[in-house]
Amino acid sequence: MNNSYGKTSNTPGYSGHRERLKQRFNSGGAEGFADYELLELILFRAIPRRDTKPLAKALVNRFGSFAEVLSAPDNLLLEISGIGQSVVTELKIVKAASERIAKGKINQQNILSSWNDILDYCRTTMAFHDKEQFRILFVDKKNRIIADEVQQTGTVDHTPVYPREIVKRALELSASAIILIHNHPSGDPAPSKADIEMTARVKEIASSMDIVLHDHIIVGKQGHTSFRGMGYL
Predict the structure, then answer these.
(1) Cα–Cα distance for residue pair 206/230, rounded to 1 Å
(2) Domains of the chain: residue spans and CATH
(3) Predicted confidence (pLDDT) per residue in 144-200, tens digit
(4) Cα–Cα distance list, 19 to 16, 66, 154 (Å)
(5) β-strands 212-220, 177-183: how paired?
(6) Helices 85-106 and 115-126 meet at what angle, rounded to 10?
(7) Contact call for residues 95 and 71 (beta carbons, < 8 A)
């Protein structure tokens, strides 16, 4: 016997839900979608024959938001009942794609005229990491990024930073300026005393080599902090 969707009574109930969700997305994009609904769209590919709504909601409940789910470590994702490696792979593909798009917006642009894109890139790549990461953007005389490197990855609240090594690498790349970026897994982007002291030391050494420190940006779930904006540079 056919139901109202023209499918047999043996058709799983979630099938109609999937089609309706896809139609909503196709007609209006992601506007109005809850985080778990966007996750459902990703899970459809990895789990073709199961209701994915409970699993999508479980992921958001566990990690907090769509962005935090994408950034969650593989081992923690795999702790969720129903999550296998195929799901983790799909999530990480979307994460990598979002980072590639954000990075594409800042490549070959004058960074001083595309500062909002720089901030978006910092947030996309680092704000939701579970460990501190210290990244450096190396800039040429035309204020274009010539290298984007993660110098150190630390613990949940500390990353070792070596100012002389930062400047040494800038000289190797013939960079005329640098931007320092790191994240606070706690979520609060306020700089610590150690952050302020380290930044001052980097500026001192860089200036002696005619290298400009444009900014030090700290990102977290609650926003970002700019050392230049706060008057530290």
Answers:
(1) 20
(2) 13-98 (1.10.150), 110-226 (3.40.140.10)
(3) 999 999 887 765 556 678 889 999 999 999 999 999 999 998 888 889 898 999 999
(4) 5, 21, 44
(5) parallel
(6) 160
(7) yes
